Amino acid sequence: MSRPLYRLSVREKLKELIQMRSVTPPGEVADVAAALCQFAAALGAKAVLQEVEPGKPNCLITFDFGPGRTLVFNSHMDVNNPQGQRWSFDPFSPFEADGRIYGLGACDAKGSLAAMLAAFERVAAAPDGVRGKVYFTVVMGEEAGGLGSRFLAEQGLRGDAGVVGEPTELRVCTAHKGTYMRRLVFHGRAAHSASSHLGINAICHAAQFCVLYQKLDAALRQLPHPILGPANASVTVIQGGTRQNTIPESCSLIIDRRLLPGETSEKADLELEAVLQELQALCPEARADWETIVSTVPSQTGSGEEIVSAALRAADTIAGPGHAPAGFNAGCDMSKLVNIAGIPTVILGPGSLKNAHSPDEFVDCGQLEQAVGIYEEIIRSYLK
Hints:
- This protein is an alpha/beta fold.
- It has 2 domains: about 10-175 and about 300-380, Aminopeptidase (3-Layer(aba) Sandwich); about 180-295, Alpha-Beta Plaits (2-Layer Sandwich).
- It is built from 9 helices and 20 strands.
- The strands form 6 sheets. A 6-stranded mixed beta sheet has the order 2-3-8-4-9-19, sandwiched between helices. A 4-stranded antiparallel beta sheet has the order 13-15-11-16, covered by helices on one side. Strands 6-7-20 form a 3-stranded antiparallel beta sheet.
- A hairpin with a 2-residue loop joins strand 2 and strand 3.
- The protein is elongated and about 80 Å long.
């Protein structure tokens, strides 16, 4: 049984959170939500569970420091499912070595979650000068396309500014890419490979599509975003064939197209249709159906927003000078706060995106400790 999170160090908080199983899929987060409610009660804060799907709630905690503005902090309880990965240790048995904490979700995003909790604890212990509310939205389903934050935003989330905890290596990110994933199934005709002329090879058509889609990726790289760099388009999964002596009648693949602010899924749909038309011109027998897997939109916060300057000052104060607005190359829940709720938001947290969703995940202990100070400084600055 896990220890209560209240009054543990940020490192111990993180280790306890890692041990709480909350992988997506299936996305069950009840253990983490219960621990957060217990933490809120110990601080005298109000906690509410908002059921998004059966047994899969958001945990919403309000820290009330009187009249004033509302600052939304957001992180997620669920982590990537490690099934199929080759870890050198049990992902749910965290440990500390060489200045790092290892374990599933250490950087994405239970490191941010632990640091936020520690920051709230510090502010609650010495709230002098703080006026307003901190609304901590700890959501389910982020790894499934942001289900929890979308539900929360569509239910009327309000706030004056927001901070999303993701592994940014303590950079203040003001823009991120959207996620456009589609599954395509190419249809052919089976035949004995000894009479291959009688069949239609679905793998060959899928392979030709891959070549054409790579051309799209090259074209996208010619139009970089000033913070995020270029958009990109990749084929990430391919499956086809039934046996070695049969012409394959079916081949499926998944494309992953990352969108820049200003781009939409509709634009990517048109690009996909154009690639398929080009394939049809080259291979008249090629036929394919496609369906949506994940669709999230990009977002951006203007550098002139007060939350951006507050976060940059805090990062400079705690982690050293020289911080400037940066980009986050993955999708995240900032898009729901900005595009649906209309809340100017930054992304900021310990850990590297390179370690997210990877075997032997870890977070740097120094960054974890500094994140606590940065979050605390943002609260005290924005709600002064």
